[in-house]
Design brief:
Layout lengths: L1 H18 L5 E12 L9 E18 L4 E5 L4 E5 L11 H13 L8 E8 L9 H17 L5 H16 L6 H8 L4 E6 L4 E6 L4 E7 L10 H19 L12 H7 L5 H25 L3 H19 L4 H11 L6 E4 L7 E7 L3 H16 L4 E5 L6 E2 L1
Parallel strand pairs: 3-5
Antiparallel strand pairs: 1-2, 1-12, 2-5, 2-6, 3-4, 6-7, 8-10, 8-11, 9-10
The structure holds alpha-D-galactopyranose (GLA).
């Protein structure tokens, strides 16, 4: 918690030094951790995730002229652009998320003035904690307040997603923005990406998550994410031709359907589709287990989820596999898996508050012994969602 408070203070100081006045509006959006349900969001499926105790602050004030001045508070890099026509740029990729959100928000109106804005957070980039969604959501809340635009949570999540698609070139689902907006303290968020219902699911207060950052940058933009999404769409098309029920997305395909028909598809598409189909079933079983306080059973589902990522979806990497396999032998660990897009980033480990420090030391040692490199660990608590301060 302290870490988050300090970030805000640092941002306010940097902001007033740079712009010579205090910001009118400050917003905050947390990152997210994905607990079960990997690559299911764009397949209209289920996810269990949480907003976390790390995030991004966004500070803004109106400017009398028509210019938009935006500063990345960590590197103190500035961009100046026209807020009426925000356009993506290859030069300052970080600014594209903010510009994309602004473009989505002001699509129907013309901003009457510019702004001075700066943001700062404590989510390491590329670590799988959704620093980009935290930036989209925090900037979206701040812009909506500054320009007096009414926007409901789901709409703002969609604007953030559109920024990812059109300004950053990644065809992500809605999970990251939704988790950041709908997070609730001491709860997981159960998302249904067909009905767009987002419900809090209480989790035992003894439970604690540990994020282990491999420091391997995931390369979603390189097309691997988009390529996985295409395979899922191709598989859904196949199932719609053989199943005697409507199939709009892999959400409509059960594990039994997969078992019956997988050998009629090409081997790779079959394997790819096994992952979201299995994940949907694991999310539903996981919710039952949480209701019955079967935490060991829930943890086993996390290990199964990782195995499916490793073998079926091939969105893991050796560093994540080392952490998850290593976690299996560490006393006090209930479950572990990769979290988010994959191809690097972080593994999430489920443990108890009592064991978390010992688990963290063991995993850091396992990683250092194998790679001679650091794996950063952070204790994650399930936190409230984004808001204007
Ligand atoms: C990334 C995307 C999400 C989701 C996850 C995988 O975080 O942004 O939309 O698809 O990967 O579950």
């Amino acid at each position: 918690m302290n870490a988050v408070i300090n970030v805000k203070d640092v941002l306010l100081k940097k902001y007033s030094e740079k712009f010579r006045h205090d910001p009118e509006i400050v917003s905050y959006a947390p990152g997210r951790v994905e607990i079960l349900g990997n690559h299911t969001d764009y397949n209209e499926g289920y996810v269990l995730s949480a907003a976390i105790n790390f995030g991004t602050y966004f500070a803004i004030s109106a400017r009398a002229d028509g210019e938009a001045h935006l500063t990345a508070g960590d590197i103190m890099q500035d961009v100046v652009f026209d807020p009426v026509r925000p356009e993506p740029s290859k030069e300052h990729m970080w600014a594209n998320y903010v510009k994309g959100v602004l473009a989505g928000l002001v699509a129907e109106s013309t901003p009457s003035h510019g702004f001075d804005a700066m943001f700062l957070g404590n989510l390491p980039l590329g670590s799988g904690l959704s620093s980009s969604a935290a930036l989209e959501v925090s900037s979206g809340l701040a812009f909506a307040k500054l320009y007096g635009i009414q926007v409901v949570k789901l709409e703002l999540a969609r604007i953030g997603q559109k920024a990812e698609h059109e300004f950053a070139g990644v065809k992500t689902g809605l999970l990251d923005q939704v988790s950041s907006l709908y997070g609730k303290k001491d709860c997981l968020v159960w998302s249904d990406f067909r009905t767009y219902e987002f419900k809090p699911v209480e989790i035992s207060p003894d439970i604690c998550f540990l994020m282990c950052n491999t420091n391997v940058r995931h390369a979603l933009v390189d097309g691997a994410y988009n390529e996985r999404r295409e395979s899922c769409e191709q598989a859904a098309k196949f199932f719609s031709t053989v199943l005697k029920k409507p199939v709009a997305a892999l959400r409509d395909v059960t594990w039994e359907d997969w078992l019956e028909y997988h050998d009629k598809m090409d081997e790779l598409t079959a394997r790819r589709s096994a992952h979201p189909i299995g994940e949907d079933e694991r999310v539903l079983s996981g919710i039952e287990m949480l209701r019955n306080n079967d935490l060991a059973g829930f943890g086993r589902l996390m290990f199964e989820s990782h195995e499916s990522s490793r073998v079926n979806f091939e969105n893991s990497c050796p560093e994540l596999d080392t952490l998850v396999a290593g976690a299996q032998g560490v006393p006090g660990v209930l479950g572990a898996r990769l979290s988010g897009g994959g191809f690097g980033g972080s593994a999430v480990v489920m443990t108890t508050k009592r064991d978390v420090d010992a688990v963290s030391t063991s995993l850091r040692n396992i990683y250092a012994n194998k790679y001679g490199a650091r794996c950063d660990t952070r204790i994650i608590t399930c936190s409230d969602g984004a808001h204007v301060l």
